[in-house]
Design goal:
Blueprint (H helix, E strand, L loop, with lengths): L12 E8 L4 E3 L5 E10 L4 E12 L7 E9 L2 E10 L4 E8 L6 E11 L5 E3 L10 E9 L2
Antiparallel strand pairs: 1-10, 2-9, 3-8, 4-7, 4-9, 4-10, 5-6, 5-8
Length: 144
């Protein structure tokens, strides 16, 4: 009689979805507002791997600093958040998270942003050559 080794669980990609900022965008909001949104229909008993990246600039004077804040939500539930202390230069931020198992159906992922006070955050969608700004949101549905 030989040894029995169960097959390893295979984690596979079920689908992907993404969004890139397509227009120059600014915010002066001190509460979270949507920057990018992706809606997808999951197959059930799956997880979402969510990747977000933002490079934005602030219009404040160099004498002051400002915080920019990011967060990811799925169906209005906050997954993760973060932020940068900004001078009037371009700063980059990235967020990553994996959701709990989701039921089958439509789910909406939001990349949201806001500033604290005193400035305007700008993301130029990569259209200004001197400013390497961008915003992206990538969602991968997996069965593991």
């Amino acid at each position: 009689m030989g040894l029995y080794f169960p097959a390893p669980e295979v984690v596979g990609i079920m689908q992907t979805a993404s969004a890139l900022l397509a227009v120059n965008t600014t915010t002066t909001s001190i509460t979270y507002v949507d920057l990018l949104t992706v809606t997808l229909t999951t197959m059930g008993a799956t997880r979402l791997e969510v990747y977000a990246s933002l490079s934005a600039s602030n219009t404040m004077s160099r004498a002051a600093t400002n915080q920019d804040y990011l967060r990811l939500t799925v169906d209005s539930t906050v997954l993760t958040s973060g932020g940068n202390e900004q001078w009037p230069v371009t700063e980059a931020s990235a967020l990553f998270c994996v959701t709990d198992v989701l039921s089958a159906g439509s789910h909406t992922v939001h990349l949201q942003w806001h500033t604290d006070t005193g400035g305007t955050l700008r993301c130029s969608a990569g259209t200004i050559a001197a400013q390497p700004e961008h915003a992206s949101l990538v969602i991968i549905e997996t069965n593991g």
